[in-house]
Design a protein that fits this description.
This protein is of the alpha+beta class. It contains eight helices and eight strands. Strands 1, 2, 3, 4, 5, 6, 7 and 8 form an eight-stranded mixed β-sheet that branches. The longest helix has 16 residues, at about 150-165. The protein is elongated. The protein starts with a helix and ends with a helix.
């Protein structure tokens, strides 16, 4: 966000919703929602179990990695982490390595682990009695009457096309000014 305020960049892709006074000075060009999924190594006990419940996760999901995909941790995930008695907060790439190594389990945005899910080093585990999580993000700019530069307009379009291709739900309600600025 600081790069936006300083005028260094014209666009930002940020976790959404963004709270605070800085959010009031942003124009949202598009918002996206993506599933956050529990992933484990194929050799992990949770991967071999049918019909996994939160009780199974608490018992077998140790350590449960606390990953910061939101501005603050998701409260339900914090409660689960506390119930396991063993949780860690580590950087995303280190977390992915720990999960692939069957050393830990974690909830990741699907796009972050999509390749690992396709190739097989990770598997998704659905929790029967846990409401699915989603992560919101938004493509934003500083509020302005001026249209986007041609490069920013092209990038905005490319991001929207790619998001649609990979199945991210676009939840934006664009203003006429924002739509017009992309023409």
């Amino acid at each position: 966000l600081q790069l936006l305020w300083d005028g260094v960049v014209e666009l930002g892709l940020i976790a959404w919703p963004c709270h605070g006074t800085s959010a009031r000075e942003l124009s949202v060009l598009a918002t996206f929602s993506e599933p956050v999924v529990l992933v484990v190594a194929p050799t992990h006990a949770l991967a071999k179990k049918r019909g996994v419940t939160t009780s199974d996760l608490v018992r077998l999901g140790r350590p449960l990695l606390k990953l910061r995909w939101w501005q603050a941790h998701e409260p339900a995930l914090l409660r689960l982490a506390e119930k396991t008695g063993v949780s860690l907060e580590v950087p995303m790439e280190a977390a992915r390595y720990l999960v692939r190594d069957s050393t830990a389990v974690g909830f990741f945005p699907r796009t972050y682990v999509a390749e690992d899910l396709e190739r097989g080093p990770l598997v998704e585990v659905r929790i029967r009695d846990l409401k699915p999580f989603e992560r919101g993000s938004a493509l934003v700019r500083r509020t302005s009457e001026s249209p986007l530069s041609p490069a920013a307009a092209a990038l905005t379009h490319a991001i929207e096309v790619q998001a649609k291709r990979i199945g991210l739900r676009d939840t934006a309600r664009r203003s006429r000014a924002n739509v017009a600025s992309r023409s």
